[in-house]
């Protein structure tokens, strides 16, 4: 029983790592209607930006998160404005493919600047706390709290600010939004900044938990997709629910499936979900 | 030097088959396959396993075609009714699962060691130079046949129906086309061609392993098809040979940009591949050979 | 805009260069023409943390030899290609090295899959191949002598790991590793050694692309191991070590010298890595080559791959000097005459070797990774192992045995 509970607990912690970039991915999808594969690079860029601030200026986790958000957000906007925007008329699929190319470029920019070595944040690492048979890391609790804080901020932004409302309006119906006098281009830029910035925040959370290198984002890409599809593409609460579902499923699966197939769990989850409930747990439409 | 050219041309042919495979569904029906590397692997392993058990090479190639079809059906089964982005995500995951299976199912695939000694037809009889020539001829011949078949398909009612689906799936459905069945068939044929390419690669290199089939090759093929002109089999072929030339040419970056660490040169080369893809989308959205769209009948 | 035009000029230059290499006949054997040697290491992809410093070590030796006048008056020209940790790309790069650059030898292939894919091209074209790959199957390839490997095979390594576990007082030994070509034989040999000492073993194969291994660690802890052997590479081992620390794993930890290396130690908090034992192939104690290498490249604890490629380039240079000819076949026929000549002068670098060869003395090279004596199969006959331990953020020598 405690084995099961521990696995679920581990899953929740894995889930929080995935949830933040998954929100970024799904937000971009909701507004711009294309799946951005460059999300992996935004995660990496954010992780490196945070690392840079941490090791050069001794920044703590919170300032590192803020810097990562800004840098990754800027990278996202630069990529969109510099490369992707002109391709929008060619269709979502073309843009999606271009994001793969953009991802390759950004990944190699970080490699060019920082090399392939793993970089760890200069932060103390603490052993887990124990409750009866269960263990949980103080760092993970912090990560969970930070992730919840970030998510709360995102929800508040979407619900209460002008930009947030405009984003939701564009996501719901772009023509209607235009009629209401909302400029879709400005909304697109805001979304990109928010989405890529969140991916960057996820990169810092990931790097604080592990370490950062040019492939760090690519390694979690599939799990992020799985979370977003599971929750329903384009649904932000869905991405959160999906991230926890994938996290828990991955950890639980270790009790039954060889550990080396862990990456396949997300894929199996996507296939099952698409077969039986294509719109995902909280999504609205899929076809 | 001659050996290098023969090699590049043979590889160009194998990339060409992959490009034809992608072009059929992307150019044809507007579907994308981000897991090309996975289908490439499925074919390579199918043929290596079958010929390893003693079957002749042609049987291996047939097995690769069949394995490709089967894999294609698995992937499309649950996604065809959905928007095309779902298919893109599923195919990406599929390639990763293929790699994991190849890595872990030692009894079938020999695990991370890979399968070496995949039979190279007539290599013993022809010698190294002779084999290289023969294999170039074989691959080029197969490429020609597949190209000719796909061109015919392109102009056939089936091909036109696919394009109708690409332009407007719902409209094509209203017009009475069995949209789902057509998409399924197109994807299956495309997967079979990718599988065939994998088998040809395996018998050429005589060695395959899970490491061979990484996502980068999928990007190369997207570059090939978009540079050549989406929707034109000939364009896809030209693009594939062009990509092999481009990849080899980027090696000389090191000579053009001095005073860089080797790892920075390697990073620059990969950046060039990404930049090339985006530039192609910009400069020639139609590719080298734009699609021929017959003029609409005039209303008089 | 300026960036764009550089790119375009770069491409044009590349095209011209390619056309040039196609058009011009090369005279690689002419007197005074440079001798070309290729490196094929991972600069991108999963092996990315290792390849760059390997190239650096090779380049340092080449510069040294060239500064001293080269081989019989001919300079060495190094051509470095990236195998992208991918045999498909590796084969393309090797084709270019062999057919365009006409290199006499390729050094440093890392991933076993890349080595297995590239080896046939090398023996077909009579190009010499030196590798650091671990899969036992590599030296069983029909390579006709055109391949040597400095990485000890897994039978030897597994036994050493097992015996060392017993030495530290461990009876319950757990092996945790990603899926690698040598994982199974490694574990079998560890088990053999540990069982012979009355102990028990367990193992877990994990997925090396995950951001955390909490549940995997739980499974390790359920076995209650005294000693844990980490079979992974640098990136996944980093993640694993953090999770082990968080779980307060109290047993001993043992790892390959290439995964727990200086860089890993620097990237993790000191308390996470404190006390980890590492094992690497090594020369006998007092060998000068290792110290020389650390000075040459300015890295305090070069990892085993770096020490091995340092030996590759030294051996290849001396073999060609002895043969008086620059070709793969000359290297094949002479490498054992400089690596293990009976009663030969002990040298630990190519410069001393070249002097000895010029003085017509037989040479017996002892390198930075070991004595570098080869069987006909291309495997090393024997090597010592360097046992080290992380102490206070530094990697300290325990013993060489």
How much beta of chain C, percentage-wise? 15-25%
Spatial separation of the terminal alpha carbons of chain C? 60 Å
Low-confidence stretches of chain C: 1-30
What is the average per-residue confidence, as pLDDT of chain A, rounded to a whole number? 90
Element-level helix/strand string of chain C: HEHEHEHEEHEHEHEHEHHEHHHEHEEE
Q: Mean of the pLDDT scores of chain C? A: 89
The total tally of domains of chain A equals: 1
Distance between the termini of chain A: 41 Å
Strand order in space, largest sheet of chain A: 1-2
Major sheet characteristics of chain A = 2 strands, antiparallel
* Main sheet: strand order of chain C: 7-6-8-9-10-13-14
Highest CATH level, the class of the largest domain in chain C: Alpha Beta
Give me the CATH superfamily of the largest domain in chain C: Response regulator
- The quaternary state of the protein chains shown equals heterotrimer
CATH architectural name of the largest domain in chain C: 3-Layer(aba) Sandwich
Strand content of chain A: under 5%
What best-fitting shape of chain C do the alpha-carbon axes yield?
globular
Helix and strand composition category of chain A: mainly alpha
Please give the largest β-sheet of chain C: 7 strands, mixed
What's the helical proportion of residues of chain A? over 70%
Q: What is the element layout, followed by pairings?
A:
The complex is a heterotrimer of chains A (287), B (300) and C (401).
Chain A: H1 2-32, H2 39-57, H3 61-84, H4 92-114, E1 129-131, E2 134-136, H5 138-160, H6 162-172, H7 174-179, H8 184-209, H9 216-231, H10 236-253, H11 262-276
Antiparallel strand pairs in A: 1-2
Chain B: H1 2-29, H2 36-52, H3 57-77, H4 84-104, H5 106-109, E1 115-116, H6 123-155, H7 157-167, H8 169-174, H9 179-205, E2 207-208, H10 216-228, H11 233-249, H12 253-256, H13 262-283
Antiparallel strand pairs in B: 1-2
Chain C: H1 2-23, E1 35-41, H2 51-67, E2 76-82, H3 87-100, E3 105-109, H4 112-125, E4 128-131, E5 147-149, H5 154-167, E6 172-178, H6 183-196, E7 200-206, H7 214-222, E8 227-230, H8 234-246, E9 252-256, H9 262-267, H10 270-273, E10 277-282, H11 288-297, H12 304-323, H13 328-339, E11 345-347, H14 350-358, E12 363-365, E13 384-391, E14 394-400
Parallel strand pairs in C: 1-2, 1-3, 3-4, 4-5, 6-7, 6-8, 8-9, 9-10, 11-12
Antiparallel strand pairs in C: 10-13, 13-14
Helix pairs in contact in C: 2-12, 3-4, 5-6, 12-13, 12-14
